[in-house]
Amino acid sequence: MGAGMAGWHTRGMLRPCLALMSLPLALGLALTPVGRAHACGGMVLPEHSERVGGMREQEVLVVFQEDRTVVLASAGYKGAGAGAAFLLPVRQNPLEIHEAAIDVFLALDELTAPEVTVHTDDGSGEDRTLGCGATKAGDAGGDLGNGGGDVMVLQRGTTASYEYEVVGGDTSVGVVDWLETAGYPLPADYAAAIEPYVQSGYFFLAAKIKPGVEEGALPPLEVHLPKSEVEAFSIPFKLAAQSLPPGESLTITTYFAASGGVLPQGVETVRIDSNDLVAESPEKTNYQELYDEVVAGGDWVIDFSSGGFSADRLLQGLSNAHEAGRAPSGDTAQVQEFIDRVPFTNYRVTRVRTTLTAEQLQDLELHKVEGDDASRYYDATFNDDATVCSMTRVGDPLSALLFPLLLVLRPRRRSGARAV
Q1: 3-class secondary structure, 235
Q2: pLDDT of amino acid 133
């Protein structure tokens, strides 16, 4: 490992393969004002105090460009519907706000999600590719004038799925009162959670979901902020603790795109150890168990990291997802629109992922690293007598015979929806 990857190591369950054979080994991982800038946040649901649903997943892409920092954020939720809103603290007034297509995240997932190819040692010669990066399948995942008192409305706009406003205030009481007037009544614990951001001078992007937007589908908000250095940027996941379904956890998939490597700061970032990967059958490995062990302590899993990544690769990623049955359409027009707004070439893209309880959620700080490549591919062999693990990089073993298996393990997302 490179010295710049502080905190990046491998870990797995102490569950060895029953037998190891001499096979080629190649590791595969199927990843203005001075102050800290924030992006992401929480959801506000109708009858928030009595909710049975809430946010189940967040996907975040942060692109550190030379002239600005762009945040693309989406959330999967259940039990909400029209009237729910996304509440995003931002350190600076956004330069631009857009609604992007979920296809951008579909393309990123296709290019970076971990995959395991299980080779069956029974003479059939049939290989099966299992997707490991998708989250658990289930729920497919007013006129207020110019504000009043100590609250200012800085921006107001609408997109296909949202009505949004950017507001700022001197006191948390003023902001909470404004939110209630705007149709976002907050319970006391939620109001208390936003107070530190208000005291630090943050603004709030409140984006209400329009009627008719499909439950579980929260199209990504694309927020362009003034340029921020990596170390001056953090993601306020702590606020999301107020939005989870009671007793449930939040799965977070975060992509960092920058001219150099970027990783979370203050938490361990772990690569699943291929030597601990066991093929329990031709259709099942222990990858999920390995992942669960890592994240149980609040650590993050590095799924993928690669330099030389350009935005136009997203077009091929979406096409691949469509051909594999994991994207509803192969139309790349909306992804191209995103690329036109957020072009980047020769960046390092790193995907890190975790699943945290409300008590574990904290604002995520970042730091620069040199950046080591981490492939997303795993390889394992299964037979009736012993399980053999290897780390041989595979190409594209997909075939029509395997599509039903892949659709089970990496569910097809509906248009505009993210499986959670």
Answers
A1: strand
A2: 61
d(CA 244, CA 265): 24
pLDDT given for residue 322 in this prediction: 92
Amino acid identity of residue 125, one-letter, is G
CA nearest neighbour of 379 among 270, 277, 272, 280: 277
| Residue in the structure block whose two tokens are 């040199």 | 370
Distance, CA of 30 to CA of 392 (rounded, Å): 12
Which residues have CB under 8 Å from 15's CB, separation 6+? 276, 278, 286, 289
Specify the DSSP class assigned to residue 368. E
Q: pLDDT, tens digit, for every residue of 349-396?
A: 999 999 999 899 988 999 999 878 999 998 877 765 544 433 333 333
Give burial (CB, 10 Å; 0-12/13-18/19+) of 307: middle
Beta bridge partners of 54: 78
Q: How far is CA 400 from CA 112, 122, 266, 325, in A?
A: 21, 21, 44, 10
Entry pTM: 0.78
The residues, any chain, with a CB within 8 Å of residue 30's CB and separated by 6 or more, are: 113, 114, 115, 116, 131, 132, 133, 303, 304, 375, 376, 377, 378
Q: Please report, for the chain, the start and end positions of each structural domain, with discontinuous segments joined by +.
A: 8-31+36-409
Calculated CA dihedral for residues 261, 342, 166, 163, nearest 10 degrees: -130
How high is the pLDDT of residue 395?
Answer: 34
pLDDT at 44: 73
Place of tokens 């649901």: 45
Rounded distance, CA 224 to CA 163, Å? 17
